[in-house]
Design goal:
Elements: H1 2-7, E1 18-22, E2 29-31, E3 38-40, H2 45-58, E4 63-67, E5 69-77, H3 79-88, E6 99-106, H4 108-121, E7 127-130, H5 138-146, E8 150-156, H6 163-167, E9 171-175
Parallel strand pairs: 1-4, 7-8, 8-9
Antiparallel strand pairs: 2-3, 5-6
Helix pairs in contact: 4-5
């Protein structure tokens, strides 16, 4: 992630700070609605890996970590189960593996907007480089541009920037992410 953020800067551009927005992994315990088995999310390998990633990234130079929260929104059927059921015609009772906890990231967009507004209105930076495909960023991008800050949108290779984001950016740069 750090290397890819640095790839987004052009020669001669000075890095002020890398703002990284995410939420910590969900740490609750939930009962699977199909078989009532308790799922301890904190005990899963993904939880440990994600926690380590966030800890290591926020310790790096010039990184400001902005964390929202993961909010549980119930259980959802997997796409595979839905496709199988549609293809098979007759409904098949779901198994425990056919559902997952639906988690929603909360508070992240607001943190991005506040940081863009602060950097812009306090005239801390001349250019903001944004790596996001989220159209919720458009109001913050418009504010920055109205106040004279250039907005550079990063397009990752093999993906395409949403046209609404593209029209509210001053420049679109394409980078090929490194593993």
């Amino acid at each position: 992630m750090y290397k890819n953020a640095l790839l987004a800067t052009a020669p001669g551009e000075e890095l002020f700070r890398i703002f990284y927005y995410d939420c910590p992994p969900y740490s609750g315990k939930e009962a699977n609605p199909i078989n009532q088995a308790i799922v301890d999310f904190q005990a899963q390998p993904k939880y440990t890996a994600r926690t380590r990633f966030i800890k290591e990234l926020k310790a790096m130079n010039y990184v400001a970590m902005r964390l929202g929260m993961a909010k549980k929104r119930g259980w959802t059927l997997t796409d595979l189960y839905i496709r199988r059921t549609i293809a098979g015609g007759a409904p098949v009772a779901p198994q425990a593996s056919d559902v997952f906890v639906n988690l929603e990231q909360k508070g992240v967009d607001m943190r991005i907007g506040i940081d863009v507004a602060t950097l812009t209105l306090k005239k801390i930076v001349d250019r903001i480089i944004l790596i996001s495909g989220d159209t919720d960023m458009i109001p913050a991008m418009k504010l920055a541009r109205r106040e004279g800050v250039q907005v550079v949108l990063i397009e990752l290779a093999q993906s395409q920037v949403h046209s609404e984001l593209d029209e509210d950016a001053d420049l679109v740069r394409c980078i090929t992410p490194t593993p």
